[in-house]
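#struct-queue
[09:14] JT: dropping the first one here, sequence first, then the structure tokens:
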Amino acid sequence: MLKGSKMMRIVLLLLVQLGLSAGGNAWAVSFSPVSVAPNVYAFIGDTGMRSYENEGMNANSGFIVTPAGVVVVDSGSSYGVAKAMHAAIRKVTRQPVKYVVNTGGQDHRWLGNGYFKALGAEIIASRKAGADMEARGGMELEALRETVREKLAGTEPVYPTRLFDQSETLKLGGEEIQVLFFGGGHTPGDSVVWLPKSRLMFSGDLVFTDRLLGVLPFGSTRDWLASFAEIEKLAPKLIVPGHGKVCDLAKARKDTRDYLALLRGHMKKALDEGMDLQTAITSLDQSAFKELRHYELLSGGNANRTYLEMESE
């Protein structure tokens, strides 16, 4: 007969194995919907880097409830994350998910598509986001697998089924929901979800607050600033940013637009004066943004990539 302690170890081992075979559900990330307007909810993600603990979901997402169904804004970083997201949605409403909007081509915006597609949802993204997903999806999946390991079980690249060039309007249950592409920025296909009635915006990765944004080799700071200018024309009352706390336009300007303007303004001057890369970087004072999370980690690379980008413009 097995002694109590030995039996307990066996039971614990079986529970771990069951968790692994179920696609990591034993460690599933949890979601708490935040009401940001009537029938509009945000999921505020971790502002840290991708980790095993956050299952790669270090970004915001959300959903809109209508009498005819739900629109999900960004499906999360994996099949399991999307499933956990849906469980949280179902605590708010039993309406089915009709649409999923992917606001961009980064992993945490779309790798949960497979879960929602299996429910019958139509998946929408800008044409450039769709191309970006197809170009980088395999690499994103492999990179994420190194971090979240077994928690990525069941996740496969599932691409949008409806693509648009500049705008797409959804009319569902009496609600008008606009998906707008201004030219990208953080990634080539970044778009926003705009609710004209409440003047609320899900900005995707065109707005970062509370943490320093990242300039990526495949993005464009020039396009990003141009896209932000289009956001300003809409004058949203409230923004659910891609990363950070829900904010107003003034906060979005401070943490995103002003930082991009600093990078590009300095690097233009540096290139005009013939500075080499290292001199341009060391002469850039970014300290006004040092309170943003990940400043030490990202500021140097942001300066480097902005110089190289503008050098080739």
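[09:21] JT: and here's the second one, same format:
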Amino acid sequence: MRHLDKPTKNVAIVYPYFAHYRLPVIRVLIKSPQFHYTLISDPISGNDIKKISPDLAIRDTKDGGLDWKFVKNRWIYKEALLWQSGLLKLLREKKYDAVIFLGNAYYLSTWLSIFYLKLKGEKTYMWTHGVISKKKGWKWTLRKVFYGLSDGVLLYGHKAKEVMIENGFPERKLHVIYNSTGTVDDLIKKNEVSIQSKNKTKKQLFKHPDLPVIIFVGRLTFVKKLDQILQATKVLFDDNFKINVLFVGDGEARKDLENLAKTLGLSDYCHFYGACFEERELEKLFAISNLCVSPGEVGLTAMSALGNGIPVLSHDDFNYQMPEYEAIEAGVNGLLFKRNSIPDLALKINQWIVENRDMPEELIAQNCKKIIKEKYNAEYQAELINKILSKDL
């Protein structure tokens, strides 16, 4: 029973749409006895990102439904700007003690909504990557003004907080809440894959199943710079250090990557698995891998790999990274290489495999999963959000 002197506070979370990976943290948030969470978004994403089913809005909350109100996204100027039609109407119809917006400075309706909520005396927050680059310009200035309008900024990582503090943001407004794609039970895999199963999978995928395997999981896009994996592999081969490469995913860059592998003479050592959405199948693929490599921004790929007990290698330049790269602790659960340096990428792949060749797989997995259990999970993320609101409201 809730205390009469602590009535439930109403909190709205406003996004253009809700990606499916947000559902676990939302599920944890709505269990809070102190806050009642309402979702506000367009039910349609307009892209191929898997989203939370809008059917949950018509299901009773006792049966797993969500308190979810819909608006209409109207994209302007080649989808560079967004106006959420109906948002102001919803914010007028109900008093919210706090409203959490996806912190995108190009959402015009968010600007107007914040000014309106300030007049009503309601708290506003930004859920965002924050200012993640030290390179200043008009975009940097725009974001600084935008985030400054809110009562608090909910950040994915500590590097953004450091940059923002260095450039005049009040530390009291900046809160690191990390990121998550699931609960601890969802993310931490038990790795119940037998040696026989691993050997069978390797033989099915590779002509040389006894070699170490590096894996990439995610969409095969050019921005991920996946060609660097093949170029680094070629460097290693020229130095008589051979490995297998496993690409799990599909996308615009796949054909180019297949052609590059052929040109470099690596076709017999590369396997393009295609998209994989089955968790059990993905566990098998991680289980045969020594290292997950993401030469471009690493993002949630790191969470998936670490949760499966597989170390991660990505580049070291914060200005061009996603916040999740902060989960990589060099020498413990992965390594960082000098951005865009093929020789250093090759060196780090070799270094991890050689230095950890005799380390028990169980210990490597334990080191990888530790950061997920401690910080990058829905329970901890929801706990931090609730603590921030409890302090301010």
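[09:30] RK: nice, looked through the second one.
[09:31] RK: DSSP finds 14 helices and 15 strands in the chain.
[09:31] JT: good to know. The mean pLDDT is 94.
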